[in-house]
TrEMBL record:
Gene3D superfamilies: P-loop containing nucleotide triphosphate hydrolases (3.40.50.300). One of its GO terms (molecular function) is ribosomal small subunit binding. Residues 367-399 are annotated as: Disordered. It comes from Micromonospora rosaria. Residues 83-224 form the G domain. InterPro entries: GTP-bd, GTPase_Era-like, P-loop_NTPase. Keywords: Membrane, Transmembrane, Transmembrane helix. GO terms for biological process: ribosomal small subunit assembly. This is ABC transporter.
Amino acid sequence: MARARRPRVREAGTVTGLVDRVRQAFRGDQRVDADDLVARLDAVRRFLQVVDGHLPDTQLVPAHTLVERAGARLALSRDHTVVALAGATGSGKSSLFNALARMDLSPVGVRRPTTGVAHACVWGPLDGANRLLDWVGVLPRHRFVRESALDGDDESALRGLVLLDLPDFDSVQRSHQLEVDRLLGLVDLVVWVVDPQKYADRLIHSNYLREFHRHKDVTLVVLNQADRLAPAELPRVLDDLRRLLDDDGLGGVPLLATAALDPSGMGELREALERTVAERQAVLRRLAGDADSVVAGLAELVGPDTPRSGPDDATVRSLTGALAETAGVPAVADAVGQAYRHRAGAATGWPLVRGWRRLRPDPLRRLHLAGPDGAGADSGSALPPPDAGRKPLAATSLPDPTAAQRSALGLAVRAVADRSAAGLPAAWPTAVTTAARSRLVDLPDALDRAVAGTDLGVTGRPLWWRLVGALQWLVTVAAVAGLGWLVLGYGLRALGLPPLDGPQVGRVPLPTVLLLGGLLAGLLLAAVTRPVIRWAADRARRQAERRLADAVAGIGEEYVVAPVRTVLGAYAEAGTALRAATRD
């Protein structure tokens, strides 16, 4: 009876274009270049390396799995093609497996489920496939060799085929389902076996076939037990199954009708497997499909927008301002101006009153910052000179930042992250924010060291200080000389000695001129230099503020902006790698 119906099955397959679809699906112009595939896998590996630490690991599991499985599979035999027969309970997988092998290898029975573990049949020497089957996970006692000396060349067309009979994916035993899911991720080609009773079952379409829409090149669907259908029903069932496959995204996937109990009903399936084995393309197509699926999943992590280099200038300036306030830059700049006036007054003031200035502490010394020439000998600083070629980096005595300053700094850092991450796909803004805040704990010490190590521009003694100081000493010496001369003259008179006649300037004695002239000249010189000192002090304050701002900006770049740029650079590199991993 089965042999009488077989011509009708073949005729129905011709009506629906089965043979043409098979040949189209496995034609040579769809070959996958091995070098291109390896390049795509390397691109996925680069993507994973770039995004490591920036994106959640849970979103990268498929990509890691692809790289690991593809590397392992390509390192194993390229001369073998692993084909799995997958199907529901009662679909006749094991019967189909035995019919293809032409031997009773997999148990067939009424009790369900019958197949609890995967069975493998290898066409060709088993030694060459053992490592591959070890990787797939088929136990040695479930491995069989089909080809033998008695077959001659009858089975030579399938040499290199590793055919697996999988457990039922709808088995009531959870372990069977898990085993099917594991093996479906490892095999090169899947032959889905359905029967006329359950070909439209929601489970196989929603949970399995639909998930294989990116693997159409390595998917084949078989309507088994076709000999149970009436000749008029077979075309309708095949057309309905084709419609369901199209809805699953598997349009163009080969659809064959088989009858496992009739050897003549296996011709088309056997021909498709022979063509697949001969091309040695199934493993490459499977991995290419896996790469397509992974890349499609990763595409949502990298948007099409142009990579950016970092936050805009306005945001960086705002960050620098907040860092300057937190570091006490205004207080240090004011101290520089005060220290300049203090030191300039000590260097250019009247020598007779310079001593009391030395009793006043230097404003920079109070903050544990560098004194003039690093020592402050002229300013009363007790700080020892620093080692040659090294800036003092001891902790300063600047007050701790206020709560308002800390809050302003936090807002500025958040602004850097938000502006830099604007428009990035999900998960990247979190990575940018984390990077921007990654070194906030180290910021206070870094800012303190930056302030302590900045050249404030007030070390040394300008030339004009020395000139004015020398003039002050000159007029002071003149005043003292005039005073001494006058005292000596009064003393001689008091003792009744002859008076000390001295030269006169007009009617005024020279000693009086020296005394009064020295005093007036000293006061006048001090009055003239005071506004100059104020101007120079203000200039020194502004210069120090600029230098401190530059130092603080460097800290902001290193501790906040640079980590953000690193993440953005990783985003750009990830996009480049993902584009390289996309199939042309």
